[in-house]
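Continuing from the previous page...

OK, I double-checked the sequence for Phytochrome-like protein cph2 against my notes and this is the correct one:
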Amino acid sequence: MPAAGPADPSAAELRDVHAAFNAAQLPMALVDADGLVVSANDGLGALLGADAAELRRRPAADLVDLAGDARAWRAYREVLRGRRSRLRCTRRLKHPGDGRPLWAEVTLASVPRGRHLLLSVADVSDRRELQDRLRHLQMHDPVTRLPNRTLFFERLTTALENSSYGSFGAHGDGGTGRIGLCHLDLDGFKAVNDTLGHPVGDRLLAAVATRLTECAGSDPHAHGDGHLVARLGGDEFAILVEDSTGTEQLTALAGAVLDAVQRPFDVAGQRLSVSASIGVVERLAAGTTVNGLMQAAETTQYWAKADGKARWTLFDPERNAHRMTRQALSSSLRPAVERGEFALEYQPLVGMADGAVHGVEALVRWNHPRFGTLSPNRFIGIAEEDGSIVQLGRWVLRTACRQARRWQTDHPEARPPFVSVNVAVRQVWDSDLVADVADILEETGLAPGLLQLELTESAVMGSAGRPLQALRALSEMDVRIAIDDFGTGYSNLAYLSRLPVSGLKLDGSFVRGFQDEAHPNPADEVVVEAMVGLAHRLGLTVTAECVETAGQAERLRRIGCDTGQGWWYSRPVPASSVPDLLPAPCA
Ligand code: C2E
Ligand code: MG
Ligand code: MG
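Thanks. Re-ran it with the corrected sequence; updated structure tokens here:
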């Protein structure tokens, strides 16, 4: 009798293997090359709520819903055809009893030297539930139970991806291809936290979260579960509006949110009031990035705060462009001085009594390679902030003095005009203005009496120490000091008169009151007349700025202003045009 080889199990052995297969905890089945169940164990029967025998000849793919997932389905077909040795995937099935979700890890693998494939289905619902719970914890804020920053960004990323794909079609999925965001920051929350403590602060945040969720849920345009409301951190929240219908939807939502937040809260026996600053952005999803949208929303929220809080503000591309330009300008200011991108124009200061040009004010312009000619209001503030005003101011002073000296030498027959140069506060504090002026006057040969410096009231008021010493030293050198834009600051004439100041430049806003010649405002005239009278009594000369009409010029002359400056006399002009404006030769 031939001995049984190792590949030929005895009938007894086969029975054992079969019994073990049936008794195994792991639900299993043997599947043939057509995908039909050859034999299933009791474990699989129990899992699927059927008798194991009933499962025979059933398509394995139906039992574990493999057709419900395109990738799993493809892999399944390849395993059946022997092109791939195994498939592993997780499928969501239903509990046979109560229909609860049942998470199954499905494996289908060829059995070496076997004719059939082995299907095993592990119930991983517990593991999955734990994972879900962990994920929920990771993605939600414990204080408000709202989605946190991480989940918010995940949803935003998905929303942008989905609607961007959709935008290539005709939004057949019912989407609009647009997206909106309300970025909200509470006003006055810090005070609550600081005075009543963090536990009360936390409860207030939770109460705010509830109201936000109500608003987001009751938006008539919201579909599905409503909009995503998330806590981004601290007292910052966001509402994400997928498939928004336009800015109206977003501003209506922001308005409702603002009303809701401003209603008093009863928290821990206290009645608390807060408000919110909300930045609103709404745009096409295509071409929008997560960062771009968030930055726009944050900037807009910041505008809402800066504009006075307790409001919503809509993103404004122009205002944003201005902000971007400001950044671009700030970074190119310093090298611009070295590259010689600045130029001066000069505007005459005309004697009211004789109508002659007594001096000119130097006004700086920036010929920016990208933005064209920029007026000083666009960049002087930035230059003051970043300190480059010191270098720029020195360049202006040197250029203006050199030019004034040139007019004098080129036109010896004319009465030489003085040049009036604007000086920023920071130049007085951060540089040795006195030494700079002395050096430049010496270098250019300009007489100190032909230089006037214009400082604003805020630069000289309350000045003790350094600014006062600088003013004294300059005045002793015979350089004149004028107070620019007078009347917009402290306007303490008595104090000014004790400083070494020789004149006032009356701010344009006073002259503007004279504009309507048919109905001149007598109050304005009375104020200006009183100021001029007082200035004269204190030994100060007065220049009126922004004189635009003959009527204004005439009234200012009658009131007693010494000099006038403005479009009525001349716009600011390049240096080469100044000689034509100068008075005839002195007698
Ligand atoms: P500011 O010193 O009060 O100069 C007068 C401004 O009023 C000039 O504007 C001038 O062009 C404008 N203006 C003159 N006449 C009229 C008029 O009839 N009507 C109106 N509406 N405006 C008139 P600009 O050149 O844009 O200068 C603005 C400000 O920039 C100056 O005001 C001054 O504070 C500052 N600035 C200009 N150049 C310099 C500079 O070199 N250094 C510093 N630190 N500041 C400067
Ligand atoms: Mg000025
Ligand atoms: Mg001025």
